[in-house]
Amino acid sequence: MRSPIARTLWRNKLEERLPTRLRRPLRILAESPVVRFLIVGGLSFALDLGILAILHGGVGVDLWIATPIAFVTSLVFNFLLQRLFTFRATNHRGVSAAKYLLLVFFNIVVSDLIVTGFDSQGWSYVAGKVTATVLTTVWNYLLYRHWIFKTGERSDTRACVDSANTSE
Fold first, then answer.
1. SS3 per residue for 2-37
2. Full DSSP string of 96-112
3. Residue closest to 101 by CA, chosen among 84, 79, 86
4. Do 30 and 15 touch, CB atoms closer than 8 A?
5. What is the Cα–Cα distance from 66 to 25, expressed in whole angstroms?
């Protein structure tokens, strides 16, 4: 693993080679965990739907088999990318995975309650699904950042500032 200084130098060299119009959007992507979280979530949804469409619509696998295969595949993809790309976690993988699975189970239960609750009130189940998705997205980000992928380590920038101050 590279040191924070080596990563910064490498990033600066790479950035110099990019067209000016691409630098800012890529810097936002590199520096914003919220943007990375949303991108990974969108990719996970697309993977889930794509695998479902291929298995059920393309190959003819029964829906009751294709749906969990697609869902579990997207969950693994989401966990790995959120851990490595979004939050760049260094904490224990097993602990993160257990917490992640607990949150997945909680989200399934809450989503089911919201969707069926909307439907039982005569409201659109689609509105319930949208509501559940918005709520789970918000608390997922917060729980991923502060509980599941929390490393307990200082950020690279803060660590560099602190080490510079102690060497004086």
1. CCHHHHHHHHHHHHHHCCHHHHHHHHHHHHCHHHHH
2. HHHHHHHHHHHHHHHHH
3. 79
4. no
5. 36
3-state secondary structure of 152: coil
Residue bearing tokens 């097993």? 94
Reported pTM: 0.72
Give the H/E segment covering residue 145: none
Q: Which two tokens stand for residue 159?
A: 């660590």
Residue type, 156: D
* DSSP of 78-99: HHHHIIIIIS---S-HHHHHHH
Are the beta carbons of 110 and 143 closer than 8 angstroms? no
- pLDDT of 29-76, one tens digit each? 777 899 899 999 999 999 999 999 999 999 999 988 999 999 999 999
Q: Residue 8 has what pLDDT? A: 64
CB 151 within 8 A of CB 33: no
Note whether 10 and 2 are within 8 A (CB): yes
**pLDDT score of 27:** 75
**Surface-to-core class of residue 138, CB atoms within 10 Å of its CB (0-12 exposed, 13-18 middle, 19+ buried):** exposed
Query: Is 36:86 a contact under the CB 8 Å cutoff?
Result: yes
In angstroms, the Cα distances linking 119 to 15, 105, 116 are 50, 21, 5
